[in-house]
Amino acid sequence: MFSILIPTWNNLALLQLCVKSIRQNSSHKHQIIVHVNDGSDGTLDWVREQQLDHTHSPQNVGICLAVNESAMLANHDYILYLNDDMYCCPGWDAALIAKLKGLDTDLFMLSGTMIEPVDTGNPCVLVHDYGRDPAVFAEERLLFELPNYRKADWYGATWPPTLVHAKWWFKVGGYSSEFSPGMSSDNDFSMKLWHAGCRIFLGVGGSLVYHFQCKSTGKIKKNDGGKQFLHKWGMRQSVFDRYYLRRGEPAQSLHLPDPEDTRDFRWQLLRSDLKRRLG
Question: Is residue 183 within 8 Å of 237, Cβ to Cβ?
Answer without folding.
Answer: no
